[in-house]
Every structure is written in structure tokens, then in C-alpha cells.
Specification:
This protein has about 300 residues and is an alpha/beta fold. The chain has a domain of about 200 residues: TIM Barrel (Alpha-Beta Barrel). The protein has twelve helices and twelve strands. Strands 1-12-9-8-5-4-3-2 form an eight-stranded parallel sheet. Strands 6-7 form a two-stranded antiparallel ribbon. A two-stranded antiparallel ribbon has the order 10-11. Helix 6 packs parallel to helix 7 and helix 9 packs across helix 10. The two termini are about 25 Å apart. The mean pLDDT is about 95. The structure holds zinc ion (ZN). The site of zinc ion has 4 residues, from loops.
Length: about 300
């Protein structure tokens, strides 16, 4: 199979998966249970989710590994199993992907901060991301996405750990919110422009944006990324609309049809890979793909 970057050079738009967490909950994941441990203990359920996205038409299978760094696994006393769990996440995805879909390891934030904001060192972060991302490669992944990031230092160290220790294609994706005075910034105050410049410098192969406040804002964010980095492939994975609080729960209500109507605008704005984040499912992916490719 052609490397993702080669494939994108031909001008093809690729489709990624939608959400994983809500799917796991629907299959019985309990509050306080470690989602990533299902890659080891309930691989059939994880494979079934991957299979449903595959049937929806995704080109890229995203692993159930978002909270798989040793920092996150520590909350479940599983830090010492980080290598095993992340390798299993990639292997389970690969079984479904076969040789005609790409496998994308997901590495989310550690939840910690480096000095001076927090107590962590760059070396510790580097080591945690090296451990997680080399495990993706050992499990058969093609690429890694360092996603839902808001702090530039953390994202950059993760990109370096991936580039220096694996041959994976490395994607880095930030979550941005609209700002009161206009424009966009991450929770840590990083603008899309600043993110793009710094993360390309750190060595990312693909830049992008995920999560946040739905496809309308994401179209604007992608335009900024495209203007800042004219030649970089861009991935965009929006939530199913703005988060809404209902009965104390955060829900996302944009329908597959509504998201599909905006998918061609995301592509026109400059996105090369599109997928879904919170609140999206197979129906969203199938509808977006149909809207972009026709048929
Ligand atoms: Zn999300």
C-alpha cells in the first residue's frame, strides 16, 4: 500500500473514523474503567467498532489508544503496561484494516504540564511519547496522530519522539476555540498560525485540528492553517456540532446530513483528510464521504 503522504500527493481526499469513546460506552464501558485496556481484554468489541467504521467507508482506522500514555494509564495503575496496551491497540486495528486501510495510532495529551506551569520535564514527556508511539509501530501502525493538543511544548516533544524513534507518518492536531475578539486559539493560548509554524519546525508531516466547536468553526480554522502552510497536508476532524449540556451530560447533536453538507466546504478550505471527533459515528463518516466524493 502506498504511504499516506504519497497517496495525498495524488490529490486524493482520505477519510478517517469518527468517535471511539461513545462507541465503547454503548458497548458497556463503565465510568472509571480504562478504555484502552479493552484492546487487551475485549479486543472483539474494539474490532467491531473498527469494522463498523470500515464499512462506513473510512480509509484510516484510528486506534483505541487516545489515553494510552503512561501518564493517563497511571490513573488505573496500568502505567507499566503502556507498551503492551498500545501495541495491542495497533495490532487490533491492523487486523481489521488488512492491507487496504491505514492504521493510525492516537496519542492524546498527558494531562500534565511541563515546568514552569507544572512539575513535568521535557525528558519525561519525551520518554512517555516514545514508549507509546514505538508501541504503535511494533503493533503494525502506519501513522500516529498527536491529537486534541493545546500546549505547543507538549505537542512538539511528542512529534520529536515520533520522528526520532519510528518511521511512522506523524500528524499533529490541535483543538482551537473561537476567541472573544475574533480569531482562534487553543486553551493554552496558541493560535492556529503559531501552531502550524512551530509544529512544522518540530517535524510534523501532517498538521490539523480536531475536537472543539463543530464543523462551522473548523472550516475557518482550516483556512488559517492552509494560508499559513500552503504545502502541508491538513487533517480536520470536527465534533458533531457545538457541545450542549443535557441532564448534566455533554452531547453533540449535529446530524450526519448536517455534517455532510459542510464536508465539501472543509475540503475547499484546504483539508486533505477528514473524519469526526466527539459525537460522530459511522453514519457521519459515510454521509461526509458521499457528500465529498458524490455517488
Ligand atoms: Zn472531540
Amino acid at each position: 500500500m502506498q504511504n499516506i503522504l504519497e497517496k495525498l500527493k495524488s490529490g486524493q481526499i482520505l477519510f478517517c473514523d469518527g468517535a471511539m469513546g461513545t462507541f465503547l460506552q454503548a458497548k458497556g464501558l463503565k465510568p472509571g474503567e480504562c478504555p484502552e485496556l479493552w484492546c487487551v481484554e475485549r479486543p472483539d468489541d474494539v474490532r467491531d467498532i473498527h469494522r463498523q467504521y470500515r464499512q462506513a467507508g473510512s480509509d484510516i482506522v484510528e486506534c483505541n489508544s487516545f489515553g494510552g500514555s503512561r501518564y493517563k494509564l497511571k490513573h488505573y495503575d496500568l502505567a507499566d503496561r503502556a507498551g503492551e496496551i498500545n501495541q495491542a491497540a495497533a495490532a487490533v486495528a491492523r487486523e481489521v484494516a488488512g492491507d487496504d486501510q491505514y492504521v493510525l495510532g492516537s496519542a492524546g495529551p498527558t494531562g500534565e504540564f511541563m515546568a514552569p506551569l507544572g512539575l513535568e520535564t521535557e525528558e519525561n514527556f519525551y520518554e512517555a511519547f516514545r514508549e507509546q508511539i514505538t508501541a504503535f509501530e511494533a503493533g503494525g501502525a502506519d501513522a500516529v496522530i498527536i491529537e486534541t493538543m493545546t500546549a505547543l511544548e507538549e505537542a512538539a516533544v511528542a512529534v520529536r519522539a515520533a520522528k526520532e524513534n519510528t518511521n511512522l507518518v506523524v500528524m499533529a492536531s490541535f483543538t482551537f476555540d473561537p476567541q472573544k475578539g475574533g480569531g482562534y486559539a487553543s486553551m493554552m493560548g496558541v493560535t492556529p498560525e503559531k501552531f502550524a509554524e512551530a509544529i512544522i519546525e518540530a517535524g510534523a508531516d501532517i498538521i490539523g485540528t480536531n475536537c472543539g466547536t463543530g464543523p462551522d468553526h473548523m472550516i475557518e480554522i482550516v483556512k488559517i492553517l492552509r494560508a499559513t502552510a500552503p504545502d502541508m497536508p491538513i487533517i480536520a476532524m470536527a465534533n458533531a456540532g457545538m457541545p450542549v449540556i443535557e441532564n448534566g451530560q455533554t452531547v453533540f447533536k449535529e446530524t450526519p446530513e448536517a455534517m455532510a453538507s459542510k464536508a465539501p466546504l472543509l475540503v475547499a478550505a484546504g483539508a486533505n483528510i477528514i473524519g469526526g471527533c466527539c459525537g460522530t459515528g459511522p453514519a457521519h463518516i459515510a454521509a461526509m464521504k458521499k457528500a465529498v466524493l458524490g455517488g
